[in-house]
Amino acid sequence: MKKATTTSCDITIVGGGMAGLTLALALAPLELSITIVEAQSPESLTSTAYDGRTSAIAYGSRLVFESLGVWESMAKDSGEIRDIRIANNHSPLYLHYDHRLVGKEPMGHIIENRFIRQALFSAIKKHKNIRLLAPEMCSGLSLSAHRAALRLKSGKNIETSLLVSAEGKHSRLRSIAGMTVRERDYGQTAIVCVAKHKKHHNGVAVEQFLPAGPFAILPMGGGHHSSLVWTETRDRAPHYLAMSDADFNFELQKRFGQFLGPVEIKGNRWSYPLSLTYATRYVADRFVLVGDAAHSIHPIAGQGLNLGIRDVALLSELIRERALLGLDFASPDALSTYESRRMSDSNLMISATDGLNLLFSNQSKMLGTLRKFGLFTVDKVAPLKKVLIKHAMGTLYD
Length: 398
What we know:
This protein is about 35% helix and about 30% strand.
């Protein structure tokens, strides 16, 4: 029987998705030894095939990617978000966010996830202090005040000063560590696809709050394509997914209206169930959660990845401050600071997205009137709109 080998490193990140790769890249200049453990192969991670997933990258997240030198490569085919229009069930009264209220820069960009992964992975390969183990999976861990030990299915063991779970909402390490999570199944399915339209979108993102859930139209690069996130009830979603393209286009046109002219689906349709999952603690001895491993929220506000990038930005800042001083960057006080500061932000976003989905995804006439009045009222209060725009951009506290 082959004897298990044990290696040591400063930081081990489990999960080679967007949050995990961003964290590794942010820490690379410190010349700490970093290991990334990822279940998928490098070929899968950097696949050029479109999988229906896009992310709304807020201006604050853009600044992080710019500082890491990857923004230009990931954003070359992106769509700018210059205006956001929010309406209740096709009402003529809508809330209009205009980027010019707070500055010249777009509020955000819509970027295909494959381009984000490719840019990050390409940058990671340039750093000799980052080692990628992929495909590889974890089978166990042990945590102590001094070290974290990770067992891999290949039989290898890793001892590390800090273990980071960036595995996503179904984090295996979070479960093994016994960290409590709270969950809510929304009974909804997100249908995602790309639509081609005759008129230029001019950087306008639209969110219609329909009885089954939000219907988001997100501007992609080129001006004549938009990414769609159609939230539908779990029981009705299969009906729309099974439709012919012609019938599906008819349903799209009803929901789009005529502001972009004739619309039609381009390519495939994808779907995934919607639920809320969040941990009640983000840290343990030598162990920390980032991104969806800590909080996976409803896509109603398009802030899921941005929340994870803010996790990464703070954690890398705290590690950098202590490492440069020769201090223990994974000490209880360092991880406690991370947890308290990130929980306050993420809990606010959890409450906001959970509440918005509850408020807008129903057919109550009384709430419908309240929704229309609320959107119309906010639209007329410029100072409040500025605060909401800055929050959406991730620059509220700058």
